[in-house]
Design goal:
four-stranded antiparallel beta sheet; about 0% helix; Neuraminidase; six-stranded mixed beta sheet; mainly beta
């Protein structure tokens, strides 16, 4: 494997959108999808935008739920507690992947309960499926450090292909929309850096690009759906979080927005028409905002408060947000009260 020279980025955002006056966008009233008073996190929407996984803390403990969006009903029971399911993800539209604890007390990435990669004495973590559902990327200590591997998703007990090597551990691989690139985080002596790897399909030369170095301290990343940019959360030396959008080739960021709440999967995205994409995030925990390709913020009035996590998608041409929130104000004519849970906000209108 040949590693090409990395192209380091310099943190010099074009637009800094903090303390600007926010425009507002309209949306339908929020609709509760989860059970009552569930503290929801870890949202994952499947490939055909019909089902969602989420994890929840309930009075009876932690559960993982699978929800069919068009019916609002759980279509599969909560996995048994002995599976110790963590970070569930979709493999295509139907199969289920997750990191789970097996009978050998080893954490492993499994798809529908089966392990695609041959077992080793080390843990396999951070599973991520390619957009076509044919490959699983994961981080494993089987090489002596936490390196990036891929393995076909359709069989079991296969020898995985190692894509990276180094003394510093790696984290959280994310596939590009075309499935020909992987972005991941790599630990560095001063924090973390965001790395893009490509050329691993078809036996070509594998190359790495450092898209954002440890001066930007990336902590979670996602691809913009057109594949031309990456959005990630950054926490600098002052410990203030920012959302940064940067071209996939690195260089100068398109914009940076401070005052945001980091999301575990990186920012969500909504299509704005005419080739526009909006990064979706939570601002100071009480507003959901959309940032256009220049970083101009638009507030989505969701009717909720205490926003924790947001996913987004377009269902049949209708822009929809899935939001975990600590509560919403409900009026029954005499009083107001709050309720935590997973909510759907539909008919988001963009200017």
């Amino acid at each position: 494997m040949t590693l090409l020279t990395s192209r380091l980025s310099v943190f010099a955002p074009v637009a800094l959108a903090l303390c600007l006056t926010f425009d507002e966008a309209a949306a339908a009233p929020p609709e509760l999808l989860s059970g009552p008073d569930e503290d929801v996190f870890g949202l994952s929407v499947n490939a055909d935008l019909a089902e969602v996984f989420y994890e929840a803390l309930t009075p009876d403990g932690r559960v993982v739920r699978r929800l069919q969006l068009n019916k609002k009903t759980a279509i599969r029971p909560t996995p048994p507690i002995e599976l110790a399911l963590r970070a569930p993800f979709w493999v295509g539209a139907k199969k289920v992947g997750a990191t789970s604890l097996g009978g050998d007390a080893r954490w492993a990435v499994r798809v529908d309960g089966k392990e695609p990669a041959a077992a080793s004495s080390a843990a396999d973590l951070y599973g991520s499926a390619s957009p076509n559902g044919e490959w699983i990327a994961f981080i494993s200590g089987r090489s002596g450090s936490g390196d990036l591997f891929i393995v076909p998703a359709g069989k079991t007990n296969q020898a995985p292909k190692r894509l990276s090597s180094g003394v510093m551990p790696e984290l959280s691989p994310v596939w590009s929309p075309a499935g020909d690139q992987l972005a991941f985080l790599r630990a560095s002596p001063r924090g973390r850096e965001l790395v893009l790897i490509e050329g691993f399909q078809g036996g070509g030369t594998v190359s790495e690009t450092v898209v954002a170095d440890d001066r930007m301290a990336p902590i979670a990343v996602s691809f913009r759906p057109d594949g031309r940019a990456l959005g990630f959360y950054s926490r600098d030396w002052s410990a203030e979080a920012a959302l940064v959008v940067i071209p996939v080739e690195g260089g100068t960021p398109l914009f940076s927005q401070k005052g945001v709440v980091p999301q575990p999967q990186g920012p969500a995205w909504l299509e704005g028409g005419e080739g526009r994409w909006f990064a979706v995030t939570v601002f100071t925990n009480d507003r959901v905002i959309l940032l256009d390709q220049m970083g101009t913020p638009v507030v989505i009035e969701t009717g909720l408060f205490g926003h924790q996590e947001v996913a987004s998608a377009t269902f049949g041409g209708e822009r929809t947000l899935l939001i975990s929130a600590s509560g919403t104000v409900v009026h029954d004519g005499t009083r107001s009260f709050s309720r935590a849970g997973l909510y759907r906000v539909r008919s988001v209108e963009l200017k």
